[in-house]
Amino acid sequence: MSKQIKYLENTFNLLIGSIFDYSFFAFPCLPEIRLRKAQVIQNSSIRTILNFQFDTPSCMLHFSSRKYNIKTLNERALESNLNYYTRAENSANPLICQLSDVSHEDLYLLELELSETEI
Question: What global pTM score does this model have?
């Protein structure tokens, strides 16, 4: 892997990836069109980083980006939600425990949606 690709990958993960990672809690509330637009932005960035043609299919793009540990937005959101809920379940704070119980339904719906898109 060239230094330029490594640099661009790190820049992507620090700038764009962190925005998506810290907004994971809003994903269940966003309309599908907004999520698709955000995925298009991420796909365009990945195409630029990996020097792919503009017309490269998304499935091929996602497959190639896996070796650089770049995940789709749904995968990032699911991973962030799972980390959050794991920490919330282990928390001793009663307010956090109540909030995590209420939000389990949103996590289930996100997992269900992700499994349907992968089929």
Answer: 0.62
Dihedral sign from CA coordinates of 48, 53, 59, 60:
negative
Structure confidence at residue 101 (pLDDT): 63
Domain with 106 in it: 3-118
Helix axes 94-118, 73-89, angle to 10 degrees: 150
d(CA 19, CA 8): 16
- Single out the residue of 86, 82, 3 nearest to residue 49, CA to CA: 3
Task: Name the amino acid, one letter, at 63.
Answer: F
66 half-sphere exposure, CB direction, 13 A CA radius: 7
Instruction: Report how many domains make up the chain.
Output: 1
| pLDDT for res 21 | 73
The torsion of the CA quartet 75, 78, 80, 83, rounded to 10 degrees, works out to -130
